[in-house]
Amino acid sequence: MVEKAVALSALLFVLGALGALTRRNLIVMLMSIELMLNAVNLALVAFSRQWGDLSGHIFVLMVIVVAAAEVAVGLGIVISLFRNRESVNVEDVSLLKW
Amino acid sequence: MVEATAYPLLRWIVLLPLLAAAVHGVSLAVLRRPLGRAATIALSVGAPALSFFIAFLALLKLVALPAEQRVLGDLLFTWIGAGSFSADAAFLFDPLSAVMTLVVTGVGTLIHVYSVGYMDDDHREDRGFERFFCYLNLFLFSMLVLVLGDNLVLMFLGWEGVGLCSYLLIGFWFSDRWNAYCGSKAFIVNRVGDFGFLLGIFLLFWSLAEMDAATVNFRELAEALPRIAEQSVTLPGWLGFLPGAPTWKLTTLIGLCFFLGAVGKSAQIPLYIWLPDAMAGPTPVSALIHAATMVTAGVYMVCRLEFLYALAPGASAVIAWTGALTALFAATIAIAQTDIKKVLAYSTVSQLGYMFLAAGCAGYEAAIFHLVTHAFFKALLFLGSGAVILAMHHEQDIDKMGGLRAQIPWTHRWFLIGVLAIAGFPWMSGFFSKDEILLTAYLAHEIPGHQALYGIALATAGITAFYMFRLHFRTFLGESRVPVEQRSHLHEPVQWILAPLAVLGVLSIFGGFLGPAAALNPVPGVDPAHSNSLANFLGSVLHGAHHEVSFATERWLAVSSVAVAGAGVLLAAWLYLWNPGLPARIRASLGGLHRWVANKYYVDEAYDAALVRPLVSLSENVLYRGIDVGLIDGAANGSARFVRAFASDVLRHFQSGLTQAYLFLMVLGTLAIASYLVAG
After folding, report:
1. pTM for the structure as a whole
2. CB-CB neighbors (< 8 A) of B660 in chain A
3. B636 exposed, middle or buried (CB, 10 Å; 0-12, 13-18, 19+)?
4. Is residue A56 part of a domain?
């Protein structure tokens, strides 16, 4: 049971990582990050069940709260970026460099 | 060890001057509102006077005790306690420190009074009247810590304190660069001696700690020291030329370390060079610090450690010979000086040599006796010279004086008394103490070459009489060489100045009766047991040599020293009074020899070439340019330069601004860490 859950979690995590690395659209990147977070949540819940320890659940609740906050901030940034640049392409915002 | 009687008033002897200095310090440095003349005088003269009064009370308490129990103590708190090491902030009032304390506070008070008159110009022209008294009170505090401290560490604290105050006061008129230079010179030369003092403390403490008797307390040291009396040290091979090499007694080495400290503070060969230049300070400072009190601290220290020197005959011999040679050497320089204060400065060096001669010959009472009488007459002479300098509007060259007796008769009288006292005029103070020293040297069979020591001391007595009367004749008698337009300005000083002169004058006449040798006592039918009272009083602390000697020998020695001194006076009179043209002709015929002496044997120049300039050049070229700028600054600036170069040429290229490039690196890093954790 736990092996399948962990395998699914790993699959979702890699999908999310690839999405975050390859897609240029900021909104898609945010969604990919959400996917990674939820992959981790899945692994935590699975292990929690395996060991009969509720700490994993508590962690997951924490992660969901943080993810919600992160999406709020992230989408706020995307909206203000779009208002200024009329673009949500991540390659258009590379001014902060050497 | 006799239990010390607790006497809590002792601390106030020390703390009152500190309190006065602290009040001055706060008003000057924090409030920035000087106290004003009257308040400054009340505070600064009042504090030492009160200290003197308390010291006098303590003396009364002390003499009321039986002779062998005469120790008063006052423990404030444990100052340093670390393992087996412990030093108390505690004061010790035994006959030796009693005598010193009374001299320091008594003469100190008189000189404070004198300073009110002498520094009046500085009050009127607002050049730090209060600052002067602040330093002077601080000096008195440090000196009293030095004298009354009951252990070596506290004594060292006072020792450094007086050095600091000496520096501050020599350079008091610091707007003149020369004065500031002289202050630094005094301080730096003293550091050499302080280094020896510190080494002595360490060596003494360590060697006693090995015998489980670690202490720095004087009275405990006296008990514990015989335990290391037989130990010896092996000198390194390159010191093989020293007498007694390759093994020395440990006590001799410790004794020599402490004596190095005394040599610095008390201006003996080879470290005497700072004292003549210290005359750059105001004259009351010269009188208090560089004649009566601070420079005698070395003598006091040697006497305080007499239990050590009793076990170190080699060190004692070095002390006696250093003292005798310094006495003679400085006296010869004094002959050719024309600055009134320089003559007195070399005379001080010479008289301090006398005291060390006595201390080295185990005549500690004689050394302290001369210390006391010297404090009286030398303070008188310096204060008298200060009165002359004031009258002459800060002219110090005796070639431009002469015949001042008519204009400043009272100054002349008191100065003459000082001159007679130092020359050893019978039954004046210097006569008794100097003869005590000559007798000690004459009888010191345990010192190699003690006849030569006696001969040197006797010759010095003659030279002393000669140069002191030369100074007197050139200043007060003969034709006036004062510029004509200045003659009408010559005036007797104010009462603030004359009153201390009078007190010191009386002390210089009668001070010898503190402890006249029975054989020389002019009061007929005096019982020898009650004669020599100072030596009897000090006897419970100082256990020097006691030689039996017949009254006839003692009187014969006294007569010969008076005869030699008289010859010196006559020679001075013949040269400077009766044949005023002769000295110039003699000078001309001596030529180079006179120049050599008048330039102080070029010792300062020799030190300059041999030590100062190589050291300065080493500091400048190697330590400053090489190590400080090259190595340390180079390493500090170099590391900054490296970081800057590495960051700008390499690291900045990672800052591409591309979010996904950062993300990629982050994933790579996370993968690396994760694979390390999984594999490890």
Report:
1. 0.82
2. 20-22, 24, 90
3. exposed
4. yes
